[in-house]
Design goal:
The protein has about 210 residues and is of the alpha/beta class. The protein contains eight helices and six strands. The chain has a six-stranded parallel β-sheet, sandwiched between helices. α6 links the parallel β5 and β6.
């Protein structure tokens, strides 16, 4: 990449409670599809759209992400939402990253199921102008007829643009809630999370383990 060209930065947010292999595969798929220089993993302080009574303390979620990022040059971890505190809104986060990385192209990475929720996000039209949303779905989810422009609930030209940037990715059926359940029940989480995360959860007794 020419040094004068802007860096392409991916943004992947979430509770990461805990981070698992599905998150990391999504980050890698986005980086390969859009030639991203790095992907910022950004754990939220409090999620805006769901209750999280079993949310691990922010220092634990940050520590697990940093342990994973240490062995992958693609990944970087940002604590801007943790430091801000309160409910995490994407518009505030993207504005802050824009200030810290002026001139860089920002790619907001989401699963395809998030596309139909975007119309509910705070200041969504301002957000769509600040960064490019790239969505990844399981094979079959994004075929024509399953997700149409009118399903997104946004005014033109955004539905068309968003669906143009929707791709099939290697998304595996892993959820953080399943991992927390398995830990609480004394079941193995090997191959569902990176070894560093499995070790950290055991050492700190997270999720009732």
């Amino acid at each position: 990449m020419n040094s004068e060209e802007p860096m392409r930065t991916g943004i992947l947010g979430g509770t990461f409670n805990p981070v698992h292999m599905g998150h990391l595969l999504l980050a890698r798929a986005a980086a390969e599809a859009y030639e991203l220089s790095k992907v910022l993993l950004i754990p939220c302080a409090s999620p805006p759209h769901k209750k999280a009574p079993d949310l691990a303390a922010s220092e634990h979620r940050l520590a697990m992400l940093r342990a994973v990022a240490e062995s992958d040059l693609l990944l970087d971890v940002s604590d801007i939402e943790i430091n801000r505190g309160g409910i995490s809104y994407a518009i505030d986060t993207v504005k802050q990253i824009k200030e810290e990385e002026p001139g860089n192209e920002l790619f907001f990475v989401v699963g395809s199921d998030t596309l139909v929720e975007l119309h509910q996000w705070r200041d969504i039209y301002d957000l769509l102008k600040l960064c490019r949303f790239v969505a990844f779905g399981r094979p079959g989810v994004l075929r024509r007829g399953t997700l149409e422009e009118e399903d997104l609930g946004l005014r033109p030209p955004w539905p068309e643009r968003l669906l143009q940037d929707a791709r099939t990715g290697r998304r595996i059926d892993i959820s953080s809630s399943e991992i927390r359940y398995r830990v609480a029940e004394g079941m193995s989480i090997r191959y569902l999370v990176p070894p560093e995360v499995e070790m950290y959860i055991a050492e700190h007794g997270l999720y009732g383990g």
